[in-house]
């Protein structure tokens, strides 16, 4: 089980990035205060699921559903579009995790198993670049895909 503070050190930025990118792809204006609150809530949900004996990967499905519900219910995005943009954001997060973490492990010649068992903080810090990339992508997408004025402000 993840150490709570270190889990949230990684999870909140990733959740904020994934949710912000979902909003940007749905053409909803980005309001960072609310995005951070939703990202923290998403992290709490994921932490709660991972703390139980539920099957691995269920936290991802729950995260997807949470983002879809918030997009559709609060931001006024149609449910199908909510699902597509949320899924796209989470797929991109997974892709970035594999590429970036794998590249950094190779670049710095880090033993994966040793990192997990002996340097948990280092492991969590190693995963922060994908969160930064998601947030930057959300800003870029929001800039070039202009938000729809009729969309409820999230």
Quick overview of this protein structure:
The chain is an all-alpha fold. The protein contains 7 helices and no strands.
Helix and strand arrangement:
Elements: H1 4-25, H2 32-50, H3 58-73, H4 79-107, H5 112-118, H6 120-126, H7 128-144
Helix pairs in contact: 1-2, 1-4, 1-6, 1-7, 2-3, 3-4, 4-7
How much helicity do the residues have? over 70%
**Span between termini:** 33 Å
Kindly state the number of beta strands. 0
Major sheet characteristics? none
The global form is globular
Structural class: mainly alpha
What number is the mean pLDDT? 89
* Quaternary: single chain
Count of the domains: 1
Work out the strand percent. under 5%
Poorly predicted segments: none
Query: In angstroms, what is the radius of gyration?
Result: 16 Å
Task: Give the helices and strands as they follow along the chain.
Answer: HHHHHHH
Q: How many helix segments? A: 7
Give your account of this protein's structure.
The chain contains seven helices and no strands. It is mainly α. The protein has one domain. Helix 1 (4-25) crosses helix 4, helix 1 runs parallel beside helix 7 and helix 3 packs across helix 4 (79-107). It starts with a helix and ends in a 10-residue tail after the last helix. 28% of the residues are buried. The model has no long low-confidence stretch (mean pLDDT 89).
């Amino acid at each position: 089980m993840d150490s709570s503070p270190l889990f949230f050190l990684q999870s909140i930025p990733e959740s904020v990035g994934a949710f912000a990118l979902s909003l940007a792809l749905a053409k909803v204006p980005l309001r960072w205060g609310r995005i951070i609150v939703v990202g923290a809530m998403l992290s709490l949900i994921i932490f709660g699921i991972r703390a139980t004996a539920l099957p691995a990967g269920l936290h991802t499905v729950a995260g997807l559903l949470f983002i879809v519900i918030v997009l559709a219910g609060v931001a006024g995005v149609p449910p199908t579009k909510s699902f597509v943009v949320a899924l796209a954001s989470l797929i991109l997060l997974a892709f970035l995790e594999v590429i970036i973490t794998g590249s950094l492990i190779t670049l710095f010649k880090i033993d994966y198993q040793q990192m997990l068992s002996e340097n948990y903080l280092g492991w969590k810090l190693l995963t922060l670049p994908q969160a930064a990339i998601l947030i930057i992508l959300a800003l870029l997408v929001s800039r070039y895909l202009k938000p729809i004025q009729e969309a409820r402000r999230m």
